[in-house]
């Protein structure tokens, strides 16, 4: 490691990190990030893995974030864990962020799938994390839809039959939810779901790539990868058979655009897994400013422009210019963060240190 201690006080701009995926998308990510579509773009770069210490389960195993100095993020964290993550976090969670953040652009509807919850992952996959995830909708085509949870209870034999048939009945069995910019949806481990075409999400997840691909045939996925290498009946036991009622669904939704000042972007049920915090200065622009507490935070500018200053390090004396589409990793050691201007930032953070995984 060549980085000096000072670098752990500095917000670090992160380059795009888009591994090849089986489904289409990526142009909305490039546009959001202010990048041109590169020549020869293969159209299968629908996910930008931000501050990632996670590798793809299949499809080549890419995904780890590299910092501007060429080091990889896991190595940088291991070299200076307290400065990056804070003592409380390291005590509770170890030298891992405990969080995977992505931008996701659905260039086509994603397959119906689910992710194991923590207890299933511990029991059958030798993994402490399942994959509860959450979607913060940044852009959506008119009428864009996501699907979440079975509308009616689906018994194990029926689920096995639907998965065997690989037809449209799986999607039809889920609750459709129309979404627009400003929506946020929590997707608990076990709940079957799908993301419709035409949506740009900021997605928070437990840091695994464990998916049960209930629909796999039409996307050309191999069965061994579709079911985590488990026997199919065992893999299907990780799926919540429902029903996910309208009131339960309502508890999984909120509006991040309603927050003024500093406040949560996600429903309260997310807090055991990760936190997303909206930071939006209020008052007369452009002088308005607001301060958020110290913390390891994937910081995504989702609207407008302004500046970001930190309590410690170079950015304490010389605020950094920020604009929509910027992605910065802010270490805990940078201290409190002051955001100024007509700008909205979402800070994606691990669960609080006291919530032991
Ligand atoms: Zn998912």
From TrEMBL:
<keyword id="KW-0413">Isomerase</keyword>
<dbReference type="GO" id="GO:0016853">
    <property type="term" value="F:isomerase activity"/>
</dbReference>
<dbReference type="InterPro" id="IPR014710">
    <property type="entry name" value="RmlC-like_jellyroll"/>
</dbReference>
<dbReference type="InterPro" id="IPR011051">
    <property type="entry name" value="RmlC_Cupin_sf"/>
</dbReference>
<protein>
    <submittedName>
        <fullName>Class I mannose-6-phosphate isomerase</fullName>
    </submittedName>
</protein>
